[in-house]
Every structure is written in structure tokens, then in C-alpha cells.
């Protein structure tokens, strides 16, 4: 497999971007929205920092720093961030602050991390102690939110806190207890602790189906947390949850490509399709998990196969360079005013499929950095 064009593809995206308009944020481009501090750019900045780390090329990290600096105020507050939204998605971009602090030693990144950590501390919780996904989703826990908030919290504890990871592990433990299907070993996209949301099962509180990218968010959150947490009982508990999830999802890999389906447990059903972002997340999680010794070595080969399958199926040459297709633009549950987002099979296959969006590009690039480590 020829990987020589991937570095150029990522640099092409960087060169086409400014802090006010990033080439990989298809939601903002399609909707004509102004730049903001957001999880989509956050995913890509994390990937760019890893590209700099693995290649030694400062251009990736320089741009990530330029984007972050665009939003940071001298007191550590973040422009465009709306605390009253209590939106876990908006915590994710804060992960880059620790990498930039490592790189520069600049205290402005610590001030911003302190400010974001204070916002997380104000996040509403369910009666069981888990964060609400957003203020507009009361009592709801989404798998997405585990990736958006928990690695940031773990990094903050590691760098500037007391090293207390107990609440992070407790929230993940509750997700396993409430959102995992005993039959399939997969996790439902959402859980309403109040059991009142229109999409929620009135008995379990869970949504109707499994969604690949939400499972991917969870898998990547676990892989990243396993790298951050120190050895001990808490890390061991997360490792067991991670191994179980990886073994469960592996059963649903497409035999020909190694990719996974948008609704993963219903392969080949009419309208279902092999989706890039969630597949890239699984590839990254498997590759990283094997590298960290949390998964058997065979998972490195499985993740590598999925990565190569994405390249073969969805990475195409164009006159302008390369395009990465097959990316579900967005999917969610509700709110009450948007009942189309009901967690049904028909809903998940109805959302737009796009190219070059960071929700697919970033995990693809992260998986690529793991492939480079594997083949170095």
C-alpha cells in the first residue's frame, strides 16, 4: 500500500485553511457559519499535533497553535465558548492545550486549560453522576460525550490536577452498566436517565440502535485514556471494558474491506453503507491498543487492514489532490423539536455522506500515525 500521498493530503488541507475557515469543517462550510471553538476542529488539531510528533514536521503543530491562539483570551477564557450551553462537544478542542503547553511552555495554555476545567466542573449530571451531553439534552448520556470530555479531564488531572481519575472511571462504568447490549456487546448511541426522551426505551432508557461513529468515539476515548492513566486498578478496569468492546465490534468487520457499517450490526441491509469515520476510529483504537499492550498483537493487523480498506475504497485522486469520502456528516438524537433524529435505522442511513470532513479525516490521520509507528 502506497502511503506517500497522505502527508501531502494533510498538508494540502492545512494550506487551504485559516483559523477563520478550516478546510475540514464541512458543517460550517455548508451552513456558512463563522469560526468557533468546536469539537470538529478540535479533532483535527489533535491529529495535526500527532502528525508533527511522528513526522518531525512543525507545519502541522504550527497551524494547530495558530488556530488555538485565535480563540484564547489573555485571562484564559475562550472566545465563542458559551458556558450556559453546557455542551460537552466544546470541551474536546481543549485537548490541544496540553500538547501546545508541552511544546512551548507558554502559560496561556495552562490558563485556558484551567478555565475549561472550571466549565467542566459546572456540567449538569444525571442522578447517577454522569454528565448531561448538553443543556438541551437533559439527563442524556451519549457515547460521543465520553470522547469529548473525559480525555481532556484525564489530561488535566495528569498535568495540573491531583491525579484523581475516579470520577472518569465511574462515569464509564455507568455507561457499561446502562448502555451495553448483553446480546451483542455493543453500546447504544444514547441513554436517557429519566426515560422520558421520545427516542428512549421506557424501560432501559437506551436509544433504538447502534451507530458506528458513536461506538468509535467510545473506542477512541478508551484507547486515549489508557495511554493517559497510570498503571493500577482503574486503568485495568478501563482496559477490560476496552478489550470487550474491541472483541465485540471485530465480529462486524466487513470481510472484503475490513470496514464497518454505518449501523454496524446490520451489514448489507438496504441503505446501509461502509462508513469512513467510525471505521477509522476503530482502526486507530485497535492499532493504538495493540501498541500499548492493551490488546493482543493481532489487533494491530486488524486495524491496519481496516486502514488500508479505507484507502482502497474511499481515498481517491482528484485534479486538486486527494479526497477522503464516505463520511457521515452528522447524527444525533433529538431534541424534542427535531423528532426526525429518533435513533431509527432509517434515520441513521438518511444523514448526508460527505468528503474531507474532520470527523473522518482526523481519525484517518490518527490511524495513519499509528501505521507509521508500526512500520517505522
What is this entry, summarized?
The chain is mainly alpha-helical and 376 residues long. It contains 14 helices and eight strands. The strands form four sheets. Strands 1-2 form a two-stranded antiparallel sheet. The chain has a two-stranded antiparallel sheet with strand order 3-4.
End-to-end separation in angstroms reads: 14 Å
CATH topology: Glycosyltransferase
- Computed over alpha carbons, the radius of gyration is 19 Å
Work out the count of structural domains: 1
The CATH first-level class comes to Mainly Alpha
What's the pLDDT, averaged over the residues?
A: 97
Shape: globular
The helix count comes to: 14
Helix/strand-derived class? mainly alpha
Low-confidence stretches: none
